[in-house]
Design goal:
With 227 residues, the chain is of the alpha/beta class. The chain has 2 domains: 34 residues, no CATH class; 179 residues, 3-Layer(aba) Sandwich (Rossmann fold), CATH 3.40.50.10420. Helix content is 28%, strand content 22%. A 6-stranded parallel beta sheet has the order 1-12-7-4-2-3, sandwiched between helices. It has a 4-stranded mixed beta sheet with strand order 8-5-6-9, sandwiched between helices. A two-stranded antiparallel ribbon has the order 10-11. A hairpin with a 4-residue loop joins strand 5 and strand 6. The chain is globular and about 65 Å long. The two termini are 40 Å apart.
């Protein structure tokens, strides 16, 4: 695929009259290397407590729900409580994320827990994330074997664990965090897809009537864990 990509890009360069000596090349390379930042919203620049409050407020505004936990040990019981309160099946499909591998499911013995990608039949999924963006209450998820993308779109209920140390102010801060954990773009460690999720799936395309679950989960529940 890399060879085909390079062939296509070389054809575009020839058509534009650009080559290695073109003075635009250093400009593009510098921009890709330095990641210049755009305008930021003032409310995202607060301390950790302010970012946490803003993130949870925006999560609620997006029609998602949340629970605040003191440790990962509380996650299984919190999921069981949520499913019971919403009369949902006591079943959860868990991403094979190393950050979730230590969860002690004996704290929720009534839950049927399985791990791996979803085949579309799972009612509830649990995943981690790369970052929680305070500005909009958005979750950044990176695809991969440890967090299969289908888990964020196929089940009707999606539960996401967000650690407080994963909270960032704005979108560019989220990409900074991704670079810090995966290296620069083009390093080979970046995910094939990055998904941004703000609340449950919805659409108002048909007669301007809001329909939940149009392209993904009907319910999004965020577990914000201190850490």
């Amino acid at each position: 695929m890399a060879g085909a990509r390079n062939t296509v890009l070389a054809g575009i360069r020839r058509a534009l009259g650009a080559d290695a000596t073109d003075d635009r090349t250093p400009t593009v390379e510098r921009r890709l290397r330095d990641h210049p930042r755009g305008p930021s919203v003032a409310r995202t620049g607060g301390d950790a407590a302010a970012q946490r409050a803003l993130f949870l407020a925006k999560v609620a505004e997006s029609a998602a729900t949340f629970a605040e936990l003191h440790s990962l040990d509380q996650v299984p019981a919190a999921i069981a409580d949520y499913l019971r309160a919403h009369n949902l099946p006591p079943m959860v499909r868990v991403a094979p994320d190393p950050a979730l591998a230590t969860l002690n499911w004996s704290a929720a013995p009534m839950l049927a827990v399985s791990t791996g990608p979803s085949d579309g039949s799972d009612p509830v999924s649990l995943t981690g994330c790369v970052a929680g963006i305070a500005e909009t209450g958005t979750l950044m998820l990176a695809s991969g074997a440890d967090n299969p993308t289908g888990l964020a779109f196929l089940p009707e209920t999606h539960v996401v664990v967000v650690r407080t140390d994963q909270l960032v102010g704005g979108l560019e801060d989220a990409f900074d965090r991704l670079r810090a954990t995966r290296g620069p773009g083009g390093s080979g460690n970046w995910p094939r897809a990055i998904n941004f999720i703000t609340g449950p799936s919805r659409s108002g395309d048909i007669e301007q009537q809001l329909q939940m679950g149009a392209h993904g989960p009907r319910q999004l529940h965020v577990l914000l864990v201190d850490g």
